[in-house]
Amino acid sequence: MKKLNLLMILMTILPWLSVPLLRGLTFKRFLPAALFMSLYLVAEGRFAEKKKWWWFPFNVRPNVIAELPLIFGPFLVGSLWILKYTYGKFNLYLLINLLVDSVFTYFGIEWFKKIGYVSLVRLTKFQLSLVFLIKTFLLYGFQVVYERYFLQKASSN
Q: So what's the pLDDT on residue 49?
């Protein structure tokens, strides 16, 4: 259990060490979409818990979903980096997300299962891939809407 706690702490903190390498404007530009998706993932985690899509054998704290280290570590920071290098190039964005999501789905989940962090229950790896694909479109769509309606209004004022 101590090793899992250390893993969760590292999983949350280590990705954030790369954030200073993002320019401030890049961070500011893509943070709303990354935060939106992180909050979406928290809601999805609650829903998945009820539907038994996957199972975490413990919680970080009572009433706190165990996937929070994944959500607010590699997912949030990874979203910032992926958007930085692929936004405006949708085909590249889609390809990168498919690669990253596939590596996580087909290799990461196996490793997490082996160390006792998470396992799929009522969801196959293919279905998990589809769930990731939906999130891929949501993240990009949010960024498009955010830039079109919020950043454009701010720059015109």
A: 87
- Could you tell me the maximum CA-CA distance found in the chain, to the nearest angstrom? 54
Burial class (CB within 10 angstroms; exposed 0-12, middle 13-18, buried 19+) of 89: exposed
Q: Is the dihedral of CA 80, 85, 87, 91 positive or negative?
A: negative
Asked whether 79 and 33 are in contact (CB, 8 A), the reply is: yes
- Structural tokens at position 34: 């990354």
pLDDT digits (tens, 9 = 90+) for 31-41: 999 999 999 99
**By CB neighbour count within 10 A (0-12 exposed, 13-18 middle, 19+ buried), where does 138 fall?**
middle
Cα gap 23→59, rounded to integer Å:
34
The DSSP symbol for 121 reads S
* Residues present in the chain in total: 157
Cα separations (Å) of 5 from 2, 26, 111, 150?
A: 5, 31, 16, 39
Write out the two tokens for 132: 């990731």
Cβ neighbours, 10 Å, residue 110? 12
Main-chain phi, psi angles of 120, to 5 degrees? -75, 145
What whole-number distance in Å separates Cα of residue 21 and Cα of residue 1? Answer: 33
Q: How far apart are CA 68 and CA 11, in angstroms?
A: 10
Q: pTM here?
A: 0.89
